[in-house]
Amino acid sequence: MGLAWQWHWHSQYVINANDTSMVFDCDIYEHSYCQNVKFAFLYACHSGDVIGSMIEYPCGEVKAQGMPLAWLHTNQLSSDGYASPDNTGRAFIGFQGVGPYLSYDGLGAANMGYNFVRYFYYAAIYRGYYYSIKGALDYAAQLVWGTNFGSCVLYTGYTIGGYNGKLVVYGDGNMHISDYAGGGGGCPLLYVYNGDEYFYEGLLDIHNPYGIDVVRNHTLIATPEPIKNAYMLRLVEHPLT
């Protein structure tokens, strides 16, 4: 005689699609079988509550539970990919607990979520040759709060409406999701006319570690030769900056 059927719940994580329909983690897992997703950033409440695991329910169904596992098809990820990157080449960013609206004006900054995400993706994609995920998080936090990500309220935690939350990074914070170096507004190469030719002085690094323009004092190596009482300098933008 077989066992009687047991009443039970299936506990899964979910995000809402643009049409308000619910998209479950187990469905994402089943539809990403190619397993070539390396990075996911879900700006959604509870998307990073757990790294995830395969769950067998009393009915016999086995399903993936947890958004990081659903997207990346692994749960072998550092629990703090920002402070302790695991160099696996995969990373997930999401919220433990509640996440603020993109237009939220609390947590010490106006439109905090929108600006943080915008600055993060600028550094991670448009300047991805220079910025890892960790570096892009620091870049965004510096522009929003004036501090690195590890010291900002998203990382240390906050309370909104009586509910706690924080932004978590799982996996490899050292990975780069783009190798693009950007175009326009880069660091210039300086050439000085010495009477015979334009002598190459070097690259003028006019950006601080967060990509913000700064003033640099440069002492010339070459001795400039005036032509009609004018010194000839040439600035050429570096193709990778």
Question: What key attributes describe this structure?
Answer:
alpha+beta; 241 residues; 2 domains; 4-stranded mixed β-sheet; 11 strands; 3-stranded antiparallel β-sheet
Describe the structure.
Strand 1 and strand 2 (22-24) form a beta hairpin. It contains 5 helices and 11 strands. It has 2 domains: 14-171, no CATH class; 183-241, no CATH class. Helix 3 packs antiparallel against helix 4. The protein is 18% helix and 22% strand. The protein has helices at residues 25-30, 67-72, 112-126, 133-145, 153-156, and strands spanning 14-16, 22-24, 39-41, 53-56, 62-65, 91-97, 158-160, 163-171, 188-193, 198-203, 233-237. The chain has 241 residues and is an alpha+beta fold. The strands form 4 sheets. A 4-stranded mixed sheet has the order 3-6-8-7.
* DSSP strand tally: 11
Low-confidence stretches: none
**Strand residue content:** 15-25%
Helix content: 10-25%
Give the strand order of the largest sheet, numbering strands 1, 2, ... along the chain. 3-6-8-7
Q: What is the overall silhouette?
A: elongated
Structural class: alpha+beta
Average pLDDT level: 88
Estimated radius of gyration: 25 Å
Report, as a whole number of angstroms, the end-to-end distance.
73 Å
Number of helices: 5
Largest sheet: 4 strands, mixed
Tally of discrete structural domains: 2
- Write down the secondary-structure element order: EEHEEEHEHHHEEEEE
Give a nutshell description of this structure.
The protein is an alpha+beta fold.
Topology:
Elements (H helix, E strand, L loop, with lengths): L13 E3 L5 E3 H6 L8 E3 L11 E4 L5 E4 L1 H6 L18 E7 L14 H15 L6 H13 L7 H4 L1 E3 L2 E9 L16 E6 L4 E6 L29 E5 L4
Parallel strand pairs: 3-6
Antiparallel strand pairs: 1-2, 4-5, 6-8, 7-8, 9-10, 9-11
Helix pairs in contact: 3-4
